[in-house]
Q: What sequence folds into this?
C-alpha cells in the first residue's frame, strides 16, 4: 500500500498511541490493513487477485481517509493547541497530505482560514497576470513599471498561497506544521515589502535618492522579520502578540516615508496626487486585523460560538485581502497620476 499512502506510513504508527481514541482506532485499523498489503506478497499473487487487492486497498484507504471526525480542543496534542477559545470542531492530527487537502471541503476550525486566502490567492493571481499582460500604452516605462507592480503581486500571491497551504497542512504533523508556519510568516513579510515597492516608486518618482534609501531600509527590515520568524518559538501561542508586533512594526515603518511625503508635498497634494487617503485606509485595515488577531476577538467573548465561522483569524485573513486590494487601488491611482504627467519631473513636482 506504499504508493497509496505515500509519505504517511512511517509516521502513522508513531502517532497512534498519543491520539484521542476515535482517531487512534481509525489509524490503527488503517495500519492493520497496511500489513496485509506487503508488496513482496502482492507480487507473488495472480494478476486478478492483485487487481482485487488493489481495489480493496483503494477502498480501504478512502474509508480510512473519510473516517476522521472533528474533535474538541482539550484532546488536541500540544502542537495543535493554538486558540483555547475555539472549543470544538478541530481536525485531528492527520499525517497524510491527501487527507489534509481533502479536508478543505469539510467543515472545521480551519475551513474559513483556508478558503479566505485560497480565494484571495486566485484573485490576486488572475489580477497580476492581467497587469503583466496589459497593453504597453498604459505605462511610461513598461518594463520597469511591470517589475514594480510584479513585486507587489509576487508578495501578495506568495503570502496568500503560503497561508492557505499552511492552514491546510497545519494538522499533518508537528514537523510539517512548523515548516509551513515559517513559510506563512515569511509570506506576510513578502506582502508588506512587496506593497512598499510600487508605492515608494511612484510616490518618490522624481526623487531617486530617498526612493532608494527607503527601499533598502524596508528590504533590510523585511529580511530581519523573515529571520526572526524562522525561530521555532515564534509560532507558539505565547508569541502571538510578538508576531502581531513584528508585522505591525514592519508595516508602520511606512510612516516615515509617508510623513516625508506629507511634509514635502503638503496635505492637499498628498491626498490628491499621493493617494494618502487610500494608504491610511489600508493601514487601518491591517492594524484592525492585527489587533483582532492578537486579542482573539470576538471568540474571547463568545468561547465556542466562533469555532467554525467569524473567529479572529478569519476576520484577520479577510482584512489582509481587503488591505492588499485597497493598496493596489491606491498605487494604481498613483501610477495613473504619473502617467497623466507623461512621467516628467518639473520644478513644480516636489517628489
Ligand atoms: Zn492565517
A:
Amino acid at each position: 500500500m506504499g504508493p497509496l499512502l505515500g509519505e504517511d506510513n512511517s509516521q502513522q504508527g508513531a502517532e497512534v498511541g498519543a491520539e484521542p481514541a476515535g482517531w487512534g482506532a481509525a489509524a490503527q485499523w488503517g495500519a492493520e490493513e497496511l500489513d496485509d498489503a506487503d508488496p513482496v506478497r502482492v507480487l507473488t499473487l495472480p494478476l486478478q487477485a492483485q487487481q482485487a487487492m488493489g481495489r480493496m486497498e483503494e477502498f480501504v484507504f478512502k474509508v480510512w481517509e473519510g473516517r476522521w471526525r472533528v474533535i474538541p480542543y482539550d484532546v488536541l496534542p500540544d502542537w495543535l493547541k493554538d486558540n483555547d477559545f475555539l472549543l470544538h470542531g478541530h481536525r485531528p492530527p492527520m499525517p497524510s497530505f491527501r487527507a489534509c487537502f481533502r479536508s478543505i471541503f469539510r467543515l472545521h476550525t480551519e475551513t474559513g482560514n483556508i478558503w479566505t486566502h485560497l480565494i484571495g490567492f486566485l484573485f490576486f493571481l488572475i489580477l497580476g497576470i492581467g497587469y503583466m499582460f496589459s497593453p504597453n500604452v498604459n505605462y511610461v516605462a513598461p518594463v520597469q513599471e511591470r517589475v514594480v507592480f510584479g513585486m507587489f503581486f509576487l508578495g501578495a500571491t506568495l503570502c496568500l498561497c503560503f497561508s492557505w497551504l499552511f492552514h491546510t497542512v497545519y494538522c499533518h504533523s508537528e514537523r510539517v506544521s512548523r515548516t509551513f508556519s515559517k513559510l506563512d510568516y515569511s509570506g506576510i513579510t513578502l506582502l508588506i515589502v512587496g506593497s512598499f515597492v510600487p508605492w515608494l516608486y511612484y510616490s518618490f518618482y522624481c526623487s531617486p535618492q530617498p526612493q532608494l534609501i527607503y527601499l533598502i531600509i524596508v528590504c533590510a527590515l523585511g529580511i530581519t522579520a523573515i529571520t526572526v520568524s524562522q525561530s521555532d518559538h515564534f509560532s507558539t501561542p505565547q508569541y502571538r502578540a510578538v508576531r502581531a508586533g513584528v508585522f505591525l512594526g514592519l508595516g508602520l515603518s511606512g510612516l516615515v516615508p509617508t510623513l516625508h511625503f506629507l511634509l514635502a508635498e503638503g496635505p492637499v497634494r498628498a491626498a490628491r496626487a499621493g493617494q494618502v487617503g487610500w494608504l491610511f485606509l489600508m493601514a487601518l485595515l491591517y492594524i484592525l486585523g492585527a489587533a483582532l488577531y492578537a486579542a482573539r476577538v470576538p471568540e474571547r467573548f463568545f468561547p465556542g460560538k466562533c469555532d467554525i465561522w467569524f473567529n479572529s483569524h478569519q476576520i484577520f485573513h479577510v482584512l489582509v485581502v481587503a488591505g492588499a486590494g485597497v493598496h493596489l487601488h491606491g498605487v494604481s491611482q498613483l501610477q495613473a497620476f504619473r502617467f497623466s504627467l507623461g512621467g516628467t519631473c518639473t520644478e513644480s513636482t516636489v517628489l
Observations:
- The pocket of zinc ion is lined by residues 113, 163, 167, 313, 317 (CB under 6 Å).
- Residues 1-42 have pLDDT under 50 and may be disordered.
